[in-house]
Amino acid sequence: MKIRRKQREKRTHAVQWLLLLTTAALCFVAFWGVRGMLNVMNQWTEDLPSIEDTDFTSHAQESVMFADDGQTVLAEFQLEKRDPIELSQISPYVLKGTVDTEDVRFYEHDGVDFPGIARALVNNLRGGKLEGASTITQQLVRNTVLTQEAHEISFERKIREAELAVNLEKRFSKDEILLMYLNTINYGDGCYGIEAAARNYFQTSAADLTLTQAATLIGIPQSPTYLNPKEHPEACLERRNVVLDRMLSAGDITRDEYEAATSAELGLSLAPDAPADGIYAYHYFTSYVRDLLLSENNPYGCSYADLFKGGLTVYTSINPSLQDKAEAACSAQRERMDADLEASLVAIEAQTGQVKAMVGGSDYDTSKVNLATGTGGSGRQAGSTFKAFTLAAAIEQGVSPQTLVDCTSPMTHVIDGQSHEFENFDGYNYGIRSIQSATAISSNTGYLRLSEAIGQSSTTEMAARLGVASPMATVYSTTLGAADVTPLDMAAAYATLASGGIKRAPVVVTKILDRNGQVIYEAPDTSERVLDERVTAATTKVLRTVFETGEGTANNARLYSGQPVAGKTGTSSDFADHWLVGYTPALSVSTWIGNPAGAIATDRGITCNALWKDFMDRATEGQAVEHFVSIQDPAYNNPYNTAQKNKLESQLNKDEDDKDDRRDLRSAPSAVGRTLSEAASILEGYPAGYLEEYSDTVPAGIVISQSVRDGQVVIIVSLGPKP
Length: 723
Hints:
The protein is α+β, with helices and mostly antiparallel strands. 40% of the residues lie in helices and 14% in strands. It is built from 23 helices and 23 strands. A hairpin with a 5-residue loop joins strand 6 (342-349) and strand 7. Helix 2 crosses helix 9 (233-249) and helix 17 crosses helix 18. The protein is elongated, with a radius of gyration of 39 Å. The chain starts with a helix and ends in a 5-residue tail after the last strand.
């Protein structure tokens, strides 16, 4: 019997040792398992992003483009609607309701709410409505520094999120964290931050949100897509009432406030949808600037990413007042033409080079071709506006504007073995003229002979020197405007004449600020003297005769203000393009009319005179008259002057009695700006007639314009504004 007892005792000790060894083994495994897990977790949190400052909450701010007044918004470029504000600018309902709804223990935990996690776990295991346990701090981390991992469902992501949340709580105060959250959280419809949401859904500020409005917005971040009140109002209303219930439970609103709020409608007051391209005003100009900002190697120090994510403030040169006047003038011109014709205009401030007005067409949505810049299309033949460059080149070479030139028409010239015929407008035979007179009447044959004498390349070189940026080739007819240019080119080049020979690159962007208000770009001073002041003044003196003499091609475009102007008209082959480029000492304005499709013949009677005058009358109204600088002429010592006198003076005297009747009509005194009865007296002895049309700028009974049509002088008399 004793032997059996000892065996039982031995078995009993064996079980105890087995249990002890098993426990030790489990502890060993657990120890190394925990240690291993800790090592893994440490690896997961080794490369956490920095939270040392609040920059991680400042991404994707909109960039705003302004006109030159710093107030007129031209465009907003953004990936998200975002408008950060301070805590004092947020309604208390939002502050309290957000905590009550998203993280009731926000002011108690250290970034991770362990009791909340346990509560949510128990609720979910019991089959209740699924609950999350992410704190406001964790949500902030997930939606900012961990956006790339936000949609991952993994233990690793939760550990990284929790670690960052704890670190964030050590670095910032609770109120700072709450503010960052409210400025960055997604409220649906592209809105990030409470201010953007308030403006978008209720057209009010975050500070002025009512209880019902605040509760509506507080509920959206749980599911920004399916709780968007614009798309899912019923779901949003239900969620809003959940928010109100939690605010009541937390004691932050009274029973009366709760009942009144829960019985109210959503009461949305939706802000107008922003345009798809972000452009609000002056589409042709604004899109031109946008494309410049987005182009590679641009001089503005910004890229696509900077513009759409950098919170830039872009100031431009466009002047809303002048732009509106330009739009009105072009619109009035279109009403006077066939529907297939368009008008374009560019105005440049001569002393700065800033583009103050730009009309590239009438319907940007239909045609993205910017006629003012050639963007999306090409330039147009400049016609006789190029004669101004030949004139400047000739004067620079010592050719006097009083030198005689042969303006007889037609003329022939052999080019590459082929005989070509050239003639003046409508075949007029102007005989022998001074260069100044040939400029006023725009003699093609006279200028072809002049350009041949000074070298056709002189015209091309002068055009480029003054500011024509489009590529040009030199041909025999360069002076007649064979090159394709843009209204921007021509306004810039003539601005050099207006400024006394100082060239300035066209400026459309004046300044750019980064999100911190620091200047990252400011338009440089590109002033460069490219033409002697005396040569410029002499050129301007001749170009004034285009407006100021009775036979000048723009004599009906003189301004009501009496402001002196200078410039040149132009018409391309087959009357496809019509131009008038003119300037005052302050403003250079280029106008163009034609078919946008290009190189399509139009009515030969069309001119840009009324368009140019309409805009300039509006632009100079009420301003003091500014005179061009008057200085000594340059030295006219070119042998060509004497040679032409000896060659042509006798022919000039012989032709005096054989003038073309049509030329006499073009020499008729101008009646522009006079009453109809005064015009009848002025034009007595000339075959003349008149037409009437409505005008917003010319008083009723006053002559708007004068031209020669079908063998008679025709004046246009204003009927006043259209009723």
